[in-house]
């Protein structure tokens, strides 16, 4: 009789512990979104833009005179947090497509383009404070920074380059 009582008591404790340790289902989360912003290069003072206002996959990302048009407006959509680091898709307002590293290249000097967003690591970017309202923007896959080719002159391609934390890689975001 005593053994049966102990076994019943033990079984009750185990069941209670099992149900108490079961996590509750969280409500689905909505991705944090910021912007739209104009991303103005701190060296050239030109804006990140999609060439000719294209809405096609593969359209070249470039610098251009800032004029307030939707091809140079960007929204940041949080995709993940890994070890406390927040990653974002940088989405062009005009096309709804993401700033992308072609074929996931890890090479310096690769020209960036836009592509349909799918949250691949070549479309995820981390932001580092560059002082004031500016960021250095680093790609998750390549570990290289968003950089303006040819000193950021109008029509110069956006590229990825080794992070040097200079003004050519700093981007001021303004609403």
UniProtKB/TrEMBL annotation:
Record keywords, A-Z: Lectin, Signal
Signal sequence annotation: 1-26
Gene3D superfamilies membership: 2.80.10.50
A Pfam family assignment: RicinB_lectin_2
Keyword field contains DNA-binding: no
Single GO term (MF): carbohydrate binding
Matching InterPro entries: Ricin_B-like_lectins, Ricin_B_lectin
Taxonomy, superkingdom: Bacteria
Protein name: Ricin-type beta-trefoil lectin protein
Species whose genome carries this gene: Actinophytocola oryzae
């Amino acid at each position: 009789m005593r053994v049966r009582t102990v076994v019943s008591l033990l079984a009750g404790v185990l069941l209670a512990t099992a149900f108490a340790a079961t996590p509750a289902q969280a409500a689905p989360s909505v991705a944090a979104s910021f912007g739209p912003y104009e991303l103005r290069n701190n060296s050239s003072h030109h804006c990140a833009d999609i060439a000719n206002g294209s809405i096609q996959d593969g359209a070249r990302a470039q610098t251009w005179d800032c004029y307030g048009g939707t091809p140079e407006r960007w929204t940041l959509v949080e995709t993940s947090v890994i070890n406390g680091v927040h990653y974002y898709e940088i989405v062009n307002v005009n096309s709804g497509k993401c700033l992308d590293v072609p074929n996931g290249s890890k090479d310096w000097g690769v020209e960036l383009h836009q592509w349909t967003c799918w949250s691949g690591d070549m479309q995820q970017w981390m932001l580092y404070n560059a002082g004031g309202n500016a960021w250095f923007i680093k790609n998750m896959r390549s570990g290289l920074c968003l950089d303006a080719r040819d000193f950021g002159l109008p029509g110069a391609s956006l590229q990825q380059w080794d992070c040097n934390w200079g003004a050519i890689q700093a981007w001021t975001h303004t609403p």
